[in-house]
Design brief:
Helices cover 55% and strands 20% of the residues. It is built from two helices and three strands, in the order αβββα. β2 and β3 form a beta hairpin.
Amino acid sequence: MASERHEIARRRHALQQQLQALSGAPLMRGSIYERRRRCGRPSCACATNPKARHASKFLTVFWAGRTRGFHLRAEEAEGVRQAIAAYERLWEIVNDLTACEVAELRRQVRERQRARKRRP
């Protein structure tokens, strides 16, 4: 039993360190997608050829009860992508911490059940 307890504690400690490392990183929930559009100039190739449409990056975020879209400049896209990845990693850590806590509760229940069976 002690080894299981130590393994859970070790895993919890490692996850808490990862969580602390994320605390200074920008976090953002959302999705980046690419939209292809016509520019509106009649002489541009995008006016007649759908494959020649201009690509631009957009961020969608569900915020304050609505889905909102934001145009991203090329230089902003990588920072936003990293913030979204950090947010997703945050939730992975939270889920792993939850699994540790559930494992610890189950371990405690098994210990109590064994202690009851040992009583005369």
